[in-house]
Each structure stands twice: as C-alpha cells, then as structure tokens.
Design brief:
The chain is α/β, with parallel strands linked by helices. It has 14 helices and 18 strands. Strands 7, 8, 9, 10, 11, 12, 15, 16 and 18 form a nine-stranded mixed beta sheet that branches. Bound molecules: NADP nicotinamide-adenine-dinucleotide phosphate. NADP nicotinamide-adenine-dinucleotide phosphate (NAP) binds next to helix 1 and helix 13.
Length: about 400
C-alpha cells in the first residue's frame, strides 16, 4: 500500500520499524534514516526477511536540504519523525517542499529554550492545507493515545467533558540507581520545568513537582503521582469544547527524584553551556552521554506501565465518569520487539497513526492533533497491534 520514511533509530524508532514490518500490507517499503547510520543498519539486519522491503540512510535532520534530498530519493508517502523534537520544523519544511505527509510524537521546542508548545507547528496549518498534505502532531502515547482516548470518550460517552486527568505510571524497574526511560535530555528538561495545568480558560503554573498525590493504579497498585506540564493539555484545551480543567500526572519514585535533585543542585541538568578544557559543553548533554542509553534498558526492565485518562462530565443531563487505560508489560515488549514499554507505548501509536494516513482514514490537508480525527479505527488498531485498552465507569478519582 505505501512507503514510510522513519527518521530516528533510537528507542522509539526501533519499535516503529518493528511494528511497520509486522504490518506489510500497509508498509510495503520503509527507509530507516538517522544521524548514525550504523543503528539503522543494525535494525535492518534484525528485521530483514519479511515482506516489507527495508532501506537505510544517513541523514542530519537539522538540515532541511538533506531531508528533501532523502525524500526525493526514496519517495515515501509519509515521513514518521521519531528523531528529537528539535528536528520537527526542519522535517516539516522538507515535507512541504516535497508534498509529503508528516507525523511526529513530540512537539517542537527550541534547543536553547526548554519550553515546548504547539505554536511553532500550528503555524504550518495553512501551508500544509495549500500543499494538500497531512501533518499529524504528537502521535505517541502521551501525547497521542491520550488524545485518541479523549476523542473516543467525547464521541461515545459524553455530551460535555468537564475534567480530564491524564495519568502516566511506570512501575518498571531497570535495576540502575538512575536512568531515564527515553532520551535523558528531553526527559530531564520536561521534569525540571515548571508544572502547569489548564483551568477555566487559563494556565495555572506550579513550581516543578510542587503538587504530589497518590493513586491506586489498576494492575500496578499505589504510586506517588506529580503534576507536570505536558503538551497534550494545550491541544485538548483548544479542541475539547466545554472542558474546565485538564491536568497531567506522572509517577516518580523517591529514589529517582533524590538523584535528580542532586544532579540539579550540582548544575548537571543545566542547558547553559560551560567552559571545559578549552571547549564549550552543555552539562545536560554531557549527563546524557554518561547515563545509560534508554535503548539498552529493555532486557533489564521488569514491571508494567499504566497510562490512561479519567474523564468527568455529563451525558443526557446526568454526571458521568469514565477511565480508559492501557497496561503494558516491559518484559513482554522486550520479548516482542527488543525494547522496554516506554519506547513500545510511543512507537506502536506512531505506526498506527501512519497507517491511518496511508489507508486514507486520517487523511485531510492541514496540521492536526490526533483528537481531531475519528478515534474508532485507531482504538481498534490499538487492540490489534499490542496496546489493548480497558475501561471503568467508577474509577477512583484524584481530588
Ligand atoms: N509521545 C510519546 O508518548 C513519546 C514517548 C517517548 C518518546 N517520545 C519522543 O520520541 C522521540 C524519540 O525518542 P527516543 O527515546 O527514541 O530518543 P533516542 O533514543 O535518543 O533516539 C533519537 C534518535 O534520533 C536521532 N537523531 C537525533 N538528532 C538527529 C538529527 N539531527 N538527524 C537525524 N537523526 C537524529 C538519534 O540519532 P543518534 O543515534 O545519532 O543520536 C536517534 O536515533 C523524541 O522526540 C521523544 O520526545 C514520545
């Protein structure tokens, strides 16, 4: 049916490639391209032998012309961007220049300013409309499936959703004293930033990790949850009419936070370049080089993740509560694709989103967040491709 260019061969890129190859009717050909070509070649070697034809390429996606040249050479129907958020705009520019559909899993943030927001990418809307191509933003798990869950709740269970709590729990243990489950630089920038939530039409800002509660997660048990800023709050506030409050909660263990506090206190999480032995280095990038590569955590990580959304609102004049979530087992993911659940839960939805575009179910000109499409075919595909979801109409609520 189609050809996909996958840019990025890290934890998430590896899962996307595995899942495309499991779905050869849709992904007849893929090209895995990244800055370090050897990682792409290693993936090809592992995945070759099925019906999906696989190519690899070296590309610096910070350079729009290099991406344009690669697109012109491979002629994909869609570019799946699972490099880093810093490359979103250069890759979108290349898609515009070549009239190619686009999908990513994380919104753009400038490398020198750890503030991610959609304004840069939403600004492409008219140009994508004029070019007649589709861009799907934030199609991992969160953002991604959380937006699909919201569209599904809105379509089937609510006249109006008033409160949304998004809960991201990871009860996995990799056995290291400190490691991040996805790109450490992106992960630490996210957690050390101020928190915020949306209430009554405006942002309420909190100090980093200021608001802490506990939640008893199905299949995982009780964990500490912290309110943090997260990108889907911004798009859901725009797209879900009548919503009064949206909050995002993530679990962190005391051990993780203690390490993080020390690293912050000694300046290792700073993005301000410092002089070191005659060169400028960014402490956070140096820390990334020292920490375990998230792509290597797969064999060591045991336990489960649980990510989902709790909705409160009204249906037919009566109050209603609805919780929809996925539980994912780190070891099962590793057995299937050689990655832990954090990469798996982000990579599977990226493949499904690309499949929605290639099969014409989610194809219209412009720049969209996932909650703007029909959630039903995506929800079916989650069940088929490894992320089955469960629902409850009387969940524990977060006060
Ligand atoms: N929505 C979600 O649920 C979700 C969850 C997790 C992650 N994510 C997002 O997924 C993306 C990938 O995360 P990850 O954990 O897979 O990160 P990762 O393991 O660090 O992999 C990033 C990949 O991008 C490549 N890359 C970086 N800069 C590049 C450039 N200029 N040109 C070409 N390739 C480049 C890297 O190449 P090298 O090997 O040369 O460094 C690497 O292959 C991130 O944007 C992350 O925020 C989304």
């Amino acid at each position: 049916m189609g050809k996909a260019l996958i840019i990025g061969a890290g934890g998430v890129g590896s899962v996307v490639a595995h899942k495309c190859v499991q779905n050869p009717d849709v992904f007849e050909e893929i090209c895995i391209a990244s800055r370090t070509k050897s990682k792409c070649d290693a993936l090809k070697q592992k995945l070759d032998g099925g019906r999906t034809k696989i190519q690899t390429a070296q590309v610096d996606a910070d350079n729009t012309q290099e991406v344009i040249d690669l697109i012109n050479a491979f002629k994909p129907d869609i570019v799946i961007n699972v490099a880093l958020p810093y490359q979103d705009l250069t890759i979108m520019d290349a898609c515009l220049a070549t009239k190619t559909d686009y999908l990513d899993t994380a919104n753009y943030e400038p490398p020198d300013n750890p503030k991610f927001e959609y304004k840069w990418q939403w600004a492409y809307k008219e140009r994508f409309e004029e070019a007649g191509i589709t861009a799907i933003l934030g199609c991992g798990f969160d953002p991604g499936v959380t937006g699909v869950f919201t569209a599904y709740a809105q379509k089937h269970y609510f006249d109006e959703i008033h409160y949304i709590d998004i809960l991201d729990a990871n009860a996995g243990d990799h056995g290291y004293p400190f490691a991040t489950n996805f790109n450490p630089e992106i992960n630490i920038r996210e957690i050390t930033a101020k928190g915020s939530y949306w209430e009554n039409g405006k942002w309420i800002e909190t100090e980093p990790l200021e608001i802490k509660k506990t939640y008893n997660f199905p299949e995982i048990g009780e964990m500490d949850i912290y309110l943090i800023h997260h990108e889907e709050i911004e798009s859901l506030a725009k797209n879900i009419k009548g919503v009064k409050r949206i909050r995002f909660w993530m679990t962190f263990s005391e051990k993780y936070l203690t390490h993080l506090r020390v690293l912050q206190n000694v300046g290792m999480t700073s993005i301000e370049p410092i002089e070191f032995q005659g060169m400028k280095i960014q402490p956070l990038q140096f820390l990334k080089a020292v920490l375990p590569d998230p792509a290597t955590l797969g064999p060591r990580t045991k336990g489960k993740t649980n990510i989902g959304c709790i909705f409160q609102g009204v249906k037919d004049g009566k109050p209603r509560t609805y919780y929809v979530y996925n539980v994912c087992d780190h070891q099962e993911c590793y057995r299937e694709v050689g990655s832990q659940a954090v990469s798996y839960t982000a990579g599977v939805p990226a493949m499904i989103g690309a499949m929605m575009v290639l099969t014409g179910k989610w194809k219209k000109p412009g720049v969209f967040n996932v909650e703007e499409f029909d959630p039903d075919p995506f929800m079916d595909a989650l069940n088929r491709y490894g992320l089955p979801w469960k629902e409850s109409f009387s969940p524990e609520l977060i006060d």
